[in-house]
């Protein structure tokens, strides 16, 4: 009692590793050690990788990514929370999976077109302004990388500050107003996913465990019943 977190005690204990080491844990240890192999598609970019869909496959399912054929139908980088939730639920994945697998955006790169409207007012719209959810200093750095008159097709930004390392920087940046895509920011608009963001920002180990489990769910390896 007294806690305002939307996460239950059981959920927090599970994420913080206070439950017994299970058969699932042993089977997915290779995932938690970072042994992920590239999907048949290239590394994540805004044009190929959609929010919440990491471009990696479990080794045990080499050559078969359950999402590889579906990326064209997933919500884009401007998707709202409801659009993201519906897309995940339609694939048998939970709202928690949405928060966890969005952490796959700790890897990769997005082109300017994926977030240009967050940093530059629309031409001819006097009322348009920078996305207020963005940190002013972060928005300024994005404008330097992607000026309004940008013509460089390769210009853009890493999805987080350590875009070549698999870690929890994505969640920490999101909490600080430095989420790159509007669909990343959408995780903070619902109390449940906002609580998961806070948990994974605070505990990288909790994120690693949850990501391994959600990857197995997505790959159909564990037959889990969590919804």
TrEMBL record:
Its cofactor is Ca(2+); heme b. Disulfide bonds join 112-146. Ca(2+) binds at residues 106, 160, 167. Residues 36-227 form the Plant heme peroxidase family profile domain. Binds 2 calcium ions per subunit. One of its GO terms (biological process) is hydrogen peroxide catabolic process. Its EC number is 1.11.1.7. Heme b binds at residue 105. It catalyses: 2 a phenolic donor + H2O2 = 2 a phenolic radical donor + 2 H2O. InterPro entries: Haem_peroxidase, Haem_peroxidase_sf, Peroxidase_pln, Peroxidases_heam-ligand_BS. Substrate binds at residue 75. It holds the Pfam family peroxidase. It is found in: Secreted. Removal of H(2)O(2), oxidation of toxic reductants, biosynthesis and degradation of lignin, suberization, auxin catabolism, response to environmental stresses such as wounding, pathogen attack and oxidative stress. These functions might be dependent on each isozyme/isoform in each plant tissue. Belongs to the peroxidase family. Ascorbate peroxidase subfamily. This is peroxidase. It comes from Panicum virgatum (Blackwell switchgrass).
């Amino acid at each position: 009692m007294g806690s305002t977190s939307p996460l239950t005690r059981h959920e927090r204990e599970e994420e913080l590793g206070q439950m017994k080491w299970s058969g699932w844990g042993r089977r997915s240890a290779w995932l938690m050690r970072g042994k992920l192999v590239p999907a048949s598609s290239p590394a994540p970019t805004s044009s190929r990788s959609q929010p919440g869909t990491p471009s990696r496959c479990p080794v045990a399912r080499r050559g078969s990514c359950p999402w590889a054929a579906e990326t064209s139908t997933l919500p884009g980088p401007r998707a709202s929370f409801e659009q993201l939730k519906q897309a995940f639920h339609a694939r048998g994945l939970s709202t928690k999976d949405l928060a966890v697998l969005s952490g796959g955006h700790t890897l990769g790169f997005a082109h300017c077109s994926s977030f240009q409207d967050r940093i530059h007012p629309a031409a001819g719209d006097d009322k348009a302004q920078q996305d207020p959810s963005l940190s002013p200093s972060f928005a300024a750095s994005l404008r330097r990388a992607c000026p309004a008159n940008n013509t460089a097709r390769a210009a853009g930004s890493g999805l987080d500050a350590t875009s070549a390392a698999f870690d929890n920087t994505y969640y920490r940046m999101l909490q600080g107003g430095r989420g790159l895509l509007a669909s990343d920011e959408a995780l903070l608009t619902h109390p449940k996913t906002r609580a998961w963001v806070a948990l994974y920002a605070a505990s990288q180990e909790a994120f690693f465990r949850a990501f391994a489990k959600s990857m197995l769910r997505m790959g159909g390896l564990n037959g889990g019943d969590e919804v």
